[in-house]
Amino acid sequence: MELKDFVSLLKRYKLILIILPSVAIVATYFYTRKLPDVYTSQTQISTGIVDQSQKLPDEAVAGESQIFIQFSNIMTMMKMNRILNQVSYQLILHDLTSREPFRKPSKLFKDLNPSARAHAIEVYTKLYNVHGLLQSWDEDQRGLSSVISSMQYDPGSIQSKMTVYRNEASDYIHIDYSSDNPQLSAFVVNTIVKEFITYYTSSERENQLKAVRFLDSLLAAKKYLMDVKRDSLKRFKIDNHILDITNQAASLYNQIADLDNRKQQADAEVASNSGAIREIDNKFNPHERKNFENFRNQVNAKITRNKDLQKTFVNSWVKSSYNPYYQAKVDSIQRVIDDQISQTIDETSDNPASAKASLQAQKMDLEIKLNLARYSISTFNGEITKLRSQLDLLVPLQAKIQEMEKSLDDDSKEYLELLAKDNQASVTANFSSKLRQVELATPGGAEASKKMLLTIAAGIIVEIFCILILFILFYLDDSIRHPKTLANKTGLPVLGYLNVIKGSTLDLKKIWEIENRGKMQQFKDLLRSIRFEIDQELHGNKILAITSLGDGDGKTLLAISLAYSYSIINKRVLLIDGNFSNPTISKTVQPKLFIEDYFRDDPDYKDVILNTSISVLGNHGSDITLLEIENERIIQQKFSKLKSMYDIIIIEVQDMDKMNKAKEWLLFADKTIAVFEARQSLDENRKASVKYFASLGSKFAGWIFNKATAEPYS
């Protein structure tokens, strides 16, 4: 439904949809017919970014994102004003010095006298050589910049006709330029490529040299730091008398372990010898033990000197880390002591108690060994304590040395990494630039004319624009165009609709005449349908009030038409013109009886209501309401009398803009219908009227949708 409405809207404005695009097509044709031909030159640059043949053997392969960034940077740099300014200088210098300029001289260009031309050539050449820019604050250079712009040689004009893009996933960047001169197009493309490669190569070379110098300075600083740390480590070892702290610590650990083992052996000897001595003592009674002690004292007196000497040799032997020299001394003095003991035993061998004497001699030998082991333990403890104190001194020194060596090792690794980077940077700096122009751009032929395409496109665009404007207006239009929409928005039923009757004026007296029968056929068919629906709503009641939401909605035509429609089915009809503000029925029919006379309770008034097929009760059109004519009781009596005389009473009341006047008539109506004109919207006042109709309940029969287009339900 909405689509058909929109199509109807387009049909209504079809002249606009035809005229405006036609005007656009004609205007575009006259505008484009003098446009010059377009010549495009193009070239390509090989970047070497993805070309493996142009990479160094150990150069890493870049990722896709990095490759994309590199290509984007190159294409962006190619459009920089720094590059395009160089092209602008060469273009203007060419036209200033050549007899065949690329473009027709502009007014500013022509105004240059010989001296100004020479000055311009001098300034442009100087700026080109130093890659300078024209300064806008300088009046002279501002004028020279205007000359370039007037010839459309400025960077903005060049960039607007230049296209730069990467050829899919290849290593090539495509550059093209379009102008009205084939020589100009080729010159611009080749100059852009030349200037860009020069700038990019010098810039890349400068950056590489900066990187090399920076890495060299870092290497020198790192080497100096390593030398300082190496000297600090050397001085620290000398000051602390350290040759090889790892071996020294290992030697101390080994000595302590050896001494600890020997100490454990000595402890074992002390325990075993002490036990053997106790076993021997248990074999003597107290008297014999006393004699043995006396004998032992005599023997001890002989060997005391040798035992003291033996103790001295044992201490020296342990402190010397078991020097064989002192080992021989200990063994020698032990043999002397053993000989003295053996000699003592021999002297007592003739004694009857020789067996006991042998035990006594064994005890003496065990005591000597016990004492020797005890001497050793004491010496071992002293040496172990001394060695551990030396080891304790080495531990912090070793930690400090390890820290210094680790720092020196880290610096060495960093130095090697920097050295590798420096070597790579040096090789890259000496490697020639990868950018190169694959082939020179040459003047090409004229491109296919786009004049016809532009002309057609102009018409299509204007047509689309017009349709879009109409669509927006249609979308924003909240008017009601269909009976179904009216029922949905108001929540009240629609009894039927009437089509719009074409014509500048409508003569109600002639509308049902024979010559209008063809034009009114659809209207009469729709009216019959409405009449049937009204009969169903009346259910034997007779008073029908017809109102509308606003003036001019068509309630007068509906009231007259209904009256005529009822009359042709042999109904006695009374048509009452209750519209005091606009009594159209009264003016058209010119009735003989008026409301102001009939409803007044005047005993002198004679009832002249005619019981004919159609009777009309008009009004004088004064500023009055129904209840101002007479009270409600009298009016009700009058209506009761009318109902006995007529089959149906049709009252046209005022529209709901004058709700107070309309409500008085609706008090006496059995049913009320309201006329709604198509393509009207519901504002706040109309919504209030709709709310009032809803409050009537069953007394409100429904809407009559008037001035509808064809097939409004489809």
TrEMBL record:
The chain crosses the membrane at residues 12-31, 452-476. One of its GO terms (molecular function) is protein tyrosine kinase activity. It comes from the Bacteria. GO terms for cellular component: plasma membrane. Residues 242-269 form a coiled coil. Keywords: Coiled coil, Membrane, Transmembrane, Transmembrane helix. Gene3D superfamilies: P-loop containing nucleotide triphosphate hydrolases. Residues 542-654 form the AAA domain. PANTHER family: FERRIC ENTEROBACTIN TRANSPORT PROTEIN FEPE, TYROSINE-PROTEIN KINASE. This is Uncharacterized protein involved in exopolysaccharide biosynthesis. It comes from Mucilaginibacter gracilis.
